[in-house]
Amino acid sequence: MRYLHTMVRVSNLEESLAFFEKLGLTEVRRSDSEKGRFTNVHLAARDDVEAATSVRAPTLELTYNWDPEDYKGGRNFGHLAFEVDNIYELCQTLIDSGVTINRPPRDGHMAFIRTPDNISIELLQKGGRLAPQEPWLSMQNVGTW
C-alpha cells in the first residue's frame, strides 16, 4: 500500500492555484472532464515533484466542479500538513503576498493558514524547532485554525 493523494474541492480554481503556488507547490498534471463537468489539478511539494511526476504520487488534487457549489465548513475536513525548510521565512513570504497567518509560529515549530475555501493548512518546521523570535513570538491568533 502507498499514499496517493488528498482531494480538496475548490470553488475558484485560479484563486486556489495562486494560493498553493505561494506555498511552493507545483502543478504536475491536469485533466478536464467534459462529461463529468470538472477539472482536476494535481500539485506536488518541491521535494515530491519528481515522485509525483514519475509515479503520480504523492499529490494534492484540487477538484473544480464547473457547476457552482457552496462548500461550507472546511474545518470538518481537518487539515493538510506541509514540512517547511524555514517556517519564519515562509510565513513572512505568505504575509507579504496577502495570506493571513491564523496561528503564527510562536514556538518556531508550527503555524496554520487557510485556503480560499477555508481549509486549514498546518506548516511544520523541518527538523528541530527554531528559536522563538519576534514578531512571531507576540503575534496573536487570527480567527480559527
Question: How is this structure best described in words?
Answer:
The protein has 145 residues and is α/β, with parallel strands linked by helices. The protein has helices at 13-23, 49-54, 87-96, and strands at 5-10, 26-33, 38-44, 59-65, 79-84, 110-114, 120-125. The chain has three helices and seven strands. The chain is globular, with a radius of gyration of 16 Å. Strand 6 and strand 7 (120-125) form a beta hairpin. The relative contact order is 0.19.
Describe, in short, the structure shown.
By secondary structure, the protein is α/β, with parallel strands linked by helices.
Task: Please give the largest β-sheet.
Answer: 4 strands, mixed
Query: Could you report the average pLDDT, rounded to the nearest whole number?
Result: 93
Radius of gyration: 16 Å
Q: How widely separated are the two ends?
A: 31 Å
Give the overall silhouette. Answer: globular
Judged by helices, strands and strand pairing, the structural class is: alpha/beta
The count of strands amounts to: 7
Strand content: 25-35%
Uncertain runs are none
Q: Write out the strand line-up for the largest beta sheet, numbering strands in chain order.
A: 1-4-3-2
The arrangement of helices and strands along the chain is EHEEHEEHEE
Count of alpha/pi helices: 3
Helix content bin = 10-25%
